[in-house]
Each structure stands twice: as structure tokens, then as C-alpha cells.
């Protein structure tokens, strides 16, 4: 049976040549969690994953797996399985031989090999494919074999380095669902790297958003999406991204207000982390689904673009030079250039310090 271990990273620093890619990074992954490392290309997420696997030496800090210091342990001794972006299957071997190869090399008893291969193939629906060669498989089937090869090792921690990025959209959706179900069946500790926010939001029990080798925010997908810690997280997550309106925060006798040249909004009930004493330049953020369009609403803009999305549409409004996106379920006709009334759901706004970008 698969063991389940936690991962604890403290004060990690990784240098690649003369460049420090990751510095003073801390991360805790509880046993049985599915943690997704999300961020743009070059943010250090794959480097972090490879350091956990032991493929990259660290310059400072520690990596513990299951309470044991594995900072300098060989990859084979870390009780991990790693699934790469490329399938890396042996082309002359059958699916069954690809699944069992590492076990045979390690001298695992034949009966144990058969048990593990049977278990993995049942989980991933590979039974009918065991006698085929990789060239006879689709891309999704090949990636399932690569995942199965990781499962048969019955590791303590499973690491995934953008395993779905080479697949088309339909296969990504199917395999994403299979991965989530696999985690539910195994109850294993999984750490998954991606730049795809849909993968992160649907797979993760917690997600860590990275930028420049630094974890910007970690939390459940719902927490990170609803209450981003800074402007980067707010604009990186969401499609379309969060709308941003610059202005200032003012303290009035009647309470706190956000004001700009064209907007005056009561934010007295906003859950401030620290309530500013004076007027403060800030940025108001609101998700497109929290921008409501319709007649007789508070603000007005001109329709600059309509994007039909099947079960909804995205209406873009030109609001005094700013582009405001609204996710709209209504089917009433809207034409380019139309004047369109809209309002912001004040209970769902975010406020950020303009200077630091931090959430207020």
C-alpha cells in the first residue's frame, strides 16, 4: 500500500549559476494533501519541485519528507515518484514492461510486481493496453502509463511537473478528472506544478502562487481566488482577470469610502487587515462575475466587446477609458457602442495599497 508522508521545507535557497532562483522559501505540505505550485514561466515552481525530488542541489535550507531530513539524500532514497512533462516511455517495451521496469531492476519479487501493476492498471484503466507498445497509444494513454509507472513504486510523495501540458484541451480535461479521482482513491501526498490556473483551481486542496522564486500566497483555491493577498495574485487568477480601478481611500464621518474621479463607493464594511488613518492611494479590484449589468444601475459605460462563451458571455465596457469586464448570464441583445448601466457588488470587492500592492 502507498505510504503517506508530509513535506516540510525551511529557508530554502537555490542558486543556478550566479543567479539565486529561490531564496528563504518555506513550505509545508501535510500528509495526503494535493498542493499545486502555480505561477508564470520562470517563477521557480519546477525548480522547487526538482529540489524536493533531489535533482537540484540546494544552496541553503532543509527539505524533510516524512519527518526525515532528505536535503542531501539521493533521489532513489527519498521515497518519491516524479511524473515529467514528457512521457519518457521505453518505446520497445510494452505498457506492462514500462510499468514494471523499475521494480524488476530493483529485484522486487514477481508476485509483488504483478500485484502493483494490476492495481495501477485498474486505477488508470490500462488493463486492455498492457500488451501494446507506446507507439500504439494516444497521448492521453501514454501519460496515464507514465502516471502508472509512478504509482507502482508506492512512494510516500508523488511529484508532477506539468504532466498535462503536451495534451490537447479535451485530453487535459479528461486526465485532470482522472488525477483528482486518483488522489481521492490513493489518499496520497501530491505536489503538482502548472502554469494553468484551471488545473490549479480544480485539482488543489491548497495552491501556492509563485512569482520570482517567492510564494506570494498559499491557501485553498476558493480563499486565494476570493481574497488575493496582493495585486499580482489578483490579476494572475481569473479569466478575464480581476477588474482594477485606481482611486483613494478616504475616512469620512459616515465611514470609509473609495473615491475616484467617477466613482464614490461606501466600503465601511470591508474587512480591512489594518484600517488606514488618512487618505491612502489604493486600487479597487472586483471580479467580472461581481460586475452586474442591467437597467437603472449606478454606473454607465459603453459596450466595447462581447465574447459569447456558451452558457454565459463576457461584456467589456469602456468606463472613462478603463476596460471593465462583466460575466453576464442574460441573453438580452447587446451591441457594440451601446450605453450599458452596471454596478459593483461591494460585498465582494478587494482593496490594495497602490504603493506596495498588498491587500488592505
Automatic annotation (TrEMBL):
GO terms for cellular component: ATP-binding cassette (ABC) transporter complex, substrate-binding subunit-containing. Residues 7-237 form the ABC transporter domain. Transmembrane segments: none annotated. One of its GO terms (biological process) is carbohydrate transport. GO terms for molecular function: ABC-type transporter activity; ATP binding; ATP hydrolysis activity. It comes from Paraburkholderia phenazinium. Coiled coil: none annotated. PROSITE patterns: ABC_TRANSPORTER_1, ABC_TRANSPORTER_2. This is Carbohydrate ABC transporter ATP-binding protein, CUT1 family. Pfam families: ABC_tran, TOBE_2.
